[in-house]
Amino acid sequence: MTHTIDDKQKLLARVRRIRGQVEAVERALEADADCGRVMHLLASTRAAMSGLMAEVVEDHVRSHLVDAEKHPGALDEEAVEQLLGVVRTYMK
Amino acid sequence: MTHTIDDKQKLLARVRRIRGQVEAVERALEADADCGRVMHLLASTRAAMSGLMAEVVEDHVRSHLVDAEKHPGALDEEAVEQLLGVVRTYMK
Amino acid sequence: MTHTIDDKQKLLARVRRIRGQVEAVERALEADADCGRVMHLLASTRAAMSGLMAEVVEDHVRSHLVDAEKHPGALDEEAVEQLLGVVRTYMK
Amino acid sequence: MTHTIDDKQKLLARVRRIRGQVEAVERALEADADCGRVMHLLASTRAAMSGLMAEVVEDHVRSHLVDAEKHPGALDEEAVEQLLGVVRTYMK
User: Mean per-residue pLDDT for D38-54?
Assistant: First the structure.
């Protein structure tokens, strides 16, 4: 999916952190933690997941909407930035 | 912003409907309508606004990310559909 | 809906500001403003609407879930704060 | 957190399913699945998490806002339903 080993490692690190957060929710439920704590953990987990989603979408827009080898320079950078600005706002 | 008169008229009709919905919220508050009604009106208005946002984003992606005259065929249709699928899900 | 004249005036001021924002979107579309500007205006309008929604929900929780005259002290303040913390996070 | 063994088991089953979904995202990234697939998996996972959040919030509202033993009948059922209607809409 991603184009560089680095990007892949970064995304994997993020998704593993999210898995850890989901496991924390699971442990909190098992331990009968109070509702407030469970809601707080869930809200953080969802925020982390939205952040990951925004990053994957950004990667998708930059890498896949246009084949840069066949159509170099075709992607309008300013329009991309405007789109990603909206995406980041909505996926927070 | 839009490329055809038709698209523009469609978006304008949508935004005017949203203005009408906001005015209905205003009237409900002025008339001391109950909270439940105000929350319901606000939820519908927000949904309408998200729908409009999704349409404007779609228009933006299809029309502005690539200058189709200079780079015909550069925009990958499948990748666009994948992106818009996510956008629609998030902007509901 | 609200319990004091002040609260009502505050909510009305907010909803009128939102109406003004929707009208700005309308004018931007009429004037063929660029997509980026329209998306930006829409995002701000939606954020303002979410903020209003969070306030109405808060008012609803504090004023209507329990009839304070019949059941004084029945509403658990800490549980209310936990709930509203989540509501504010989600309605941003 | 929850009041019955059944509720707890139901929530635990949900959070474990979500963990499985996060693991599927991880595997997809490791296997260099295409962006579209990763975005689709992430969107489903986030939807499942929002559904769980809505359920925990509902549980919180029904069980913790009012101590039903000390203040029986204090929670206004209609107002609760109006609140939860909004919560479900926003947490989808």
Answer: 93
